[in-house]
Amino acid sequence: MIPKELLQDRYWRGLIYIFTQHAKLSRYLTPEFVDFEELSVHVDKLKKASKGWSTSEKFMLALALHLYNGRNKVDLSEADRLDDKNTEIALKALRLRYTG
User: Fold this and answer.
1) Are the CB atoms for 13 and 7 separated by under 8 Å?
2) Is 80 exceeded by the pLDDT of residue 100?
3) Left if phi > 0, otherwise alpha if psi is -120 to 50, otherwise beta: which for 89?
4) I want to staple 74 with a disulfide (CB 3.0 to 4.6 A). Which of 44, 50, 62, 98 is the partner?
């Protein structure tokens, strides 16, 4: 269960949006990877789990992690590989993070 106050937090809402809208990432919205009680994202575990993913799936993870915490870098040029649905998810997540 996602705490409602996190949906108002600019650092969490982009990540939450991507994870809830993306088919593969939604499977990782568990306390093992994203712990809402501890308010932590287990970046290393997520990156390890993503080793065999497609480039576009890895991009969506990288974007979610970047929106949550700028320390996680993302190469925006890799967005060229996204299909229309994932492009819309990415754009909305960016708006959620940067426009309030």
Assistant:
1) yes
2) no
3) alpha
4) 62
Of the candidates 24, 69, 9, the one whose C-alpha atom is nearest the C-alpha of residue 44 is 69
* pLDDT range class, residue 63, cuts 50, 70, 90: very high
Distances (CA, A) of 43 to 38, 84, 89: 14, 26, 20
Taking the C-alpha atoms of residue 25 and residue 28, their distance in angstroms, rounded to an integer, is: 5
How many other CB atoms sit within 10 Å of the CB of residue 41? 21
Mean pLDDT of the chain: 94
Q: What size, in residues, is the chain?
A: 100
Task: Give the model's pLDDT for residue 1.
Answer: 80
